[in-house]
Amino acid sequence: MTEGTRSRRPDRDAGPSGLIEMLAGEPMGAAVLALCSAERLSAITDGLVKSPLARSTVRAGLDLGWSAVAAGSEPCPDATGGLLGRTISDLEELAGSLFGNVPEFQSELDDAMAAAIYALQAVREGSSTAAANAVGRCRDVYFQLAVKTLATA
User: Fold this and answer.
1) Domain segments of the chain: what residues?
2) How far is 152 from 134, CA to CA, in rounded Å?
3) If I label 127, which of 24, 25, 81, 143 is the partner at 20 to 30 A Cα–Cα?
4) 29-84: per-residue pLDDT in tens?
5) Which residues, other chains included, contact 17 with Cβ-Cβ below 8 Å and sequence gap of 6+?
6) What φ, ψ does residue 50 adopt, rounded to 5°?
7) Integer CA distances (angstroms), 23 to 1, 16, 31, 32, 114, in order
């Protein structure tokens, strides 16, 4: 926990790594934060990008991640870990196959799928780096979308 949070003053400039550091020693907490970030970006696959395959694959992956977290097992048991691994592979393969198929929101789609992959890695491995990457992707996309929105306003 950083000095700003201990003094009851929230840290205003905490980046993704700083947020994950606040959860040091709590891999499930970091995984939940990563899943929450990936959920926010899943709206891109649901609404902005008209790809039923991307939508269903991301949704199934995130649902699996939430199920694993709800089970509360650290690290994931072999069966769940294996299923998470296959889902991560499916998302990686799908992300590569969709490249260039949705030119208007390709970057955002890539980030949404990467955030889902990172979140699932955080769940499966308890990886703080993967969790920070998921949070970072979410933060970057929201910033990019804000810039695009303001540019057209």
Assistant:
1) 32-145
2) 27
3) 143
4) 888 889 999 999 898 888 777 778 888 999 999 999 999 888 876 555 566 778 88
5) 132, 136
6) -90, 70
7) 7, 11, 10, 11, 22
**How many angstroms separate the CA atoms of 95 and 76, rounded?**
24
Residue 1 scores a pLDDT above 50: no
Distances (CA, A) of 73 to 52, 63, 68, 94, 144: 31, 16, 7, 28, 35
What secondary structure letter does DSSP report for 62? H
* Percent helix, percent strand, percent coil in the chain, to nearest 5: 80, 0, 20
**Are the C-beta atoms of residues 38 and 116 closer than 8 Å to each other?**
yes
Preceding amide of 75 cis, omega within 30: yes
What pLDDT score was predicted for residue 9?
A: 54
Band (108; pLDDT cuts 50, 70, 90): confident
